[in-house]
Design brief:
single chain, alpha+beta, Beta-Lactamase
Length: about 325
């Protein structure tokens, strides 16, 4: 239908959805399009490249190959996965992400819906993931597999930040008497990568690897406070007014002022934001070149932390963050 509707000097653009398991352009289609005056065929989104498909005279257009939002002037390549939702990735990445974000086992149709892929495509991908241990099957549902634990373990024992964090957090927990934690940013969330419990037990268990939002809690806001203006604007655009655990609401128009204060103070204090009755004091961990690499902090119950104790914790947390940052290798 598309080729019959072509006019002279038009271009066909194909959205391949990042799927490398099927052909989206064949020689017969290309030759038929050329005979009707088509001057180029390519994947979406694309820009012209002076390269022709083998065996015919139709130029092939290379997809924009940049993860994230579409910006002008970025590199473009040929024969690589195309952008899905603005991010360059293969379909398998979407399935892994769906399993990773799930809080319970998912049926095949649910995985497909979360990944925005066809059920047949997801079924093929899950077959590969099951063979490699990155997915597990329980009855007619799927979860992340045990191989994911091996990847997490490799990060914890080889990544310099993770290795250096443990003794720092142990010392901070011993000095303050409160639970010490460290978070890093992963996409638009924060992930707990290390935690040392203290003599003041918390009313909840937060396992290492848990993903939490950036807009609630001192650690997340500290990360937001150190983002560039354009990136911060993009993230805030997807946030509305947020109910707080202690009552009330965090209004979207209040958040920029809070981030400015965190940026100028060099620390953040959060009281009953994500969980009721919980206080946190956090500070940014910067490498020697000033790059934010993590957020470090202590957490305790509100009945054990009054204003005077919070004021005492702030220099302890900032000192630990500065000491750790000085030891983190500079990237690049």
């Amino acid at each position: 239908m598309t080729t019959t509707a072509l006019c002279d000097h038009e271009v066909i653009v194909i959205n391949g959805q990042g799927d490398q398991n099927r052909a989206v352009m064949g020689e017969l289609i290309a030759e038929r399009a050329r005979s009707r005056g088509c001057v180029g065929m390519g994947h979406r989104p694309s820009r012209p490249r002076h390269r022709r498909s083998p065996g015919n005279r139709v130029r092939r257009l290379g997809p924009r190959c940049q993860p994230g939002r579409p910006l002008q002037g970025r590199p473009r390549k040929i024969d690589v996965p195309v952008a899905v939702g603005g991010v360059v990735c293969a379909p398998g990445d979407l399935v892994v992400a769906a399993l990773q974000d799930a809080k319970q086992p998912l049926r095949l149709s649910e995985v497909a819906r979360h990944a925005s892929l066809h059920v047949a495509t997801v079924q093929r991908i899950l077959g590969v993931l099951l063979d490699r241990g990155y997915a597990a099957r329980i009855g007619d549902t799927y979860t992340a597999g045990p191989a994911a634990l091996a990847v997490a373990h490799a990060f914890m024992v080889t990544n310099p930040l993770s290795v250096l964090a443990q003794p720092t957090l142990q010392q901070l927990a011993a000095n303050t008497g409160f639970t010490a934690s460290m978070y890093v940013r992963v996409e638009n969330s924060r992930v707990l990568i290390a935690r040392v419990e203290s003599e003041h037990p918390l009313s909840y268990i937060l396992p290492v690897g848990e993903r939490l939002p950036l807009y609630l809690g001192g650690a997340g806001k500290t990360i937001l406070a150190h983002l560039g203006a354009e990136e911060l604007e993009t993230i805030l655009a997807g946030i509305g007014d947020v109910p707080l655990a202690g009552g009330g609401t965090l209004r979207k128009d209040e958040l920029p002022a809070q981030l400015d204060k965190i940026r100028s103070d060099g620390f953040a204090v959060s009281v009953s934001e994500r969980l009721f009755g919980i206080v946190s004091v956090t500070a940014p961990v910067r490498a020697a070149d000033g790059t934010l690499v993590a957020v470090l902090g202590v957490t305790g119950p509100t009945d054990a932390l009054d204003d005077a104790q919070i004021a005492h914790l702030i220099p302890e947390v900032r000192r630990a963050a500065t000491t750790l940052g000085a030891r983190v290798p500079v990237t690049g």
